[in-house]
Amino acid sequence: MVGLRVISGLLAAIGLVQASNIVPGAFIVEYEEGVDIDAELSSVQDVASTRMKLDYKLFKGASIRFHDADTADDQADLLGTRPAVKKMWPVRLYSVPKHTVHWVAGDDAHEEDAAETRQAPEDTFSPHVMTQVNQLRDQGVVGEGIKVAVVDTGIDYRHPSLGGCFGPGCLVSFGYDLVGDAFNGSNVPFPDPDPFDCGGHGTHVAGIVASQTNNPYGIIGAATGVTLGAYRVFGCDGSSPDDVLIAAFNMAYEAGADLITASIGGASGWSEEPWSVAVSRIVENGVPCTISAGNSGDEGLFYASTAANGKGVTAIASIDNSVTPALLTVASYTVDGGAEESLGYTPGQPSAWAGVTLPLWSVNYDTTDPSNACTPLPDDTPDLSEYIVLVRRGTCNFVQKLANVVEKGARYVIIYNNVPTGATAVSGTAVPGLEAVAMVTADQGGKWIAALSAGQNVTVAMTDPTTAEKSLTLSPNNLTGGFLSTYTSWGPTWEIDFKPQLASPGGLILSTYPTALGSYAVLSGTSMACPLVAGIYALLMEVRGTKDPKTLENALSATSNPNLFNDGSTTYPVLAPAAQQGSGLVQAYDAAYTTSLLSVSSLSFNDTDNILPVQNFTVSNTGKTSVIYTLSHVGAATGYTLPGDGSIFPAPFPNELLDDYATLEFPSGTSFTLPAGQRKIVTVKATPPAGLDAQRLPVYSGYIAINGSDSSSLSLPYLGVAGSLHSATVLDPALTYLSSSLNINDAAVSANHTFLLPPPGHSNDTEYNSNSTDYPRLFINLALGSALVRVDVVPSSSDANATESVGLATLGDLYLTPLEYQPRGPQSATWDGRLSTGEYVPAGFYKLAVRALKIFGDRNSADDYELAETIEFGIQYIGASSYKRADRVRKEWSA
User: Fold this and answer.
1) What tens digit of pLDDT does each residue of 626-661 get?
2) Where are its TM segments located (predicted)?
3) Number of domain units in the chain
4) pLDDT tens profile 796-846
5) Are residues 309 and 377 in the same domain?
6) What does 171-186 look like in DSSP terms, one character per residue?
7) Where in the sequence numbering do the catalytic residues fall?
8) DSSP, res 166
9) Is 362 within 8 Å of 460 (Cβ atoms)?
10) What range defines the domain where residue 507 resides?
């Protein structure tokens, strides 16, 4: 059983009522087939400007932004009633998933001229060996002629390993910049035809797919024979809105991309979001789309990311590399004046190491001390100014360690790592008196400690990191190599769609980087796992002669290798849950040549309220000989979504895991023979594991093994929930409360607190942005996702203007509510008295009623909402002793 911990908190959003990732006043509008989009946009030009025209084969629409933010929500309601409008969504922002940059090569990284290297020498690149890509490449399979579109930060196509040019005949042969350098997600984009990367993420991704071999570090892409498309959706910093993402995917589709990959996302869990819907349509029309599963593994179960959550979209989880690549600066040392030995280090900041040759002094000789130099050094510590001080990486931050040794005179410090992941750059610029800092590997630190503890003298001769030789080291990763990365996000979706689908190496991946930023780098994230699978798709397209999304995903899923659970420090003797690893580590060669195929890539038995206990799948023998197939079942760890302390919030990683498994039955038997070219429908009946605490929402999973007499070995992953999601608590009443915009600590106000607001329509006027203006600030916290969150204004006494809204007497919704398809987690809103209609409520006393729709709930049934009310409070408007209900503030447009 794996231990657990509990983390909770509140996120304060700035501005009027809105989710923190919503662009105020902006909406995506999808029109019905046959509608004249230009005419529709022209008809609303008096009240809204066009952000983007989204006129594509698979998505007919546009994104608009209303001129008057005060009335935008009401204008959107009116627009949504027009017969031409099929669906509307608010525009949301997404970001490149948080990823780790472990090191970047320096300006001195040697690069060879761009050259044709489509046929590579023997492939020993560890991510390729782990996934059998090397076996396909050894046969000359390179994804020849396949067009792979990369939706990301752009690509540094001038990079020698990425072809050195852009356009027809180049490796990066097509694409578009949809936003421009200065775009941050909220300002106006300035598109242009040049998708050059200034951020780095997209170039790293592109190298994983198709880097050529003309580089000093042996980096090679999975599919060097493809052509790349670069669709830039980020500026140099910031986020990207989903209207831009929808446009990029559709542009790539219409440009003839054979597959589209993106390492972008955000917390969600709902497949109904517009970007997810758009990507699903592309998959339905024959183009596979691989999207990273996300890097929020610490959030636990049910944290599927957009648009990886889309139906038919292939979500990719991350596995740690079997080796740790590190580009180290070369220096040397001697022991007792003996022979010179080489060492590698990563310079930090400051880095004035040139000409420094000094004896080594260590804080202590304990290579397991977690708090090395975390406290002030003892009084008998010698003057450290003429030493290089050796400190072990540990529990406290680097600045604290450095400050403690500098206090004793240290000018030069080397930190040795405490984990087998190379050596990272350390910043000590906040410590006055420090002249240089560096990090060495745990192995190097251990050697020095052994020598010092034996009474030997170690002298280190450092080098100028700006001119010194660099050396690529590949250290075995015996701790987490081959296991799921702890940061990889867990599924399933809130509707219990199986996510993620596949897993590949994404932790500690060496690839290309913009030449202006160092040319090569090691990064970690599902962002790195996803493009490797995209490259593998291209290889399979070449071998199997098909580009069908289902066929390729099914083949990869069936031939993947599920692995044991690892929490980052310990490996447990149980398979990792399918909600974490999907089908397991992909095996490209097996998927390319298997002649035994399955009709699905996974099964979901849903929860106990909606259980689908009997399901079918088809086994096909496409080989030339008869095969005897044997069915069996291997259970994976069952994970509790909720902790055992009664909390309604999902437990963070690592969840409590159990070795309780579902029972699977095969009514038609566990063995059958298929002649060549024949297929058979297999029925499976699942019984969830018994004896579990259903209120904690246990997610069970496992793998159906299908072993053939021809030595084929397939597996089909499944999952289900041994509890009722509809019965689970979605909204926490205790964390639904009112604070004041004047309370810097977000403390709750007392009952009957009266807020002083600007006059209606003047919230953004600078003359009212003072400490005398007191806005009510609403805090809510969703324990689980909700497809609809309503926030109603409830009068304290009977009000003739109140109307019934799904069983509640209310004056109306708060501005920019209700909110659809919300992820779990905290949200906050500051209110200026405005309703979603654009009206302002009169001065008086009210409560706010927050209602969150239960999972699988009916949005028209009051019983399917959870309700939390605030205390009663009053509002007044500056300059008015009272304020009567405003007339509707909206502008009609022509029909």
Assistant:
1) 999 999 999 999 999 999 999 999 999 999 999 999
2) none
3) 5
4) 887 767 888 898 989 988 877 888 999 999 989 889 998 888 789 999 999
5) no
6) SEEEEEESS-TT--SS
7) 152, 201, 527
8) B
9) no
10) 100-322+482-561
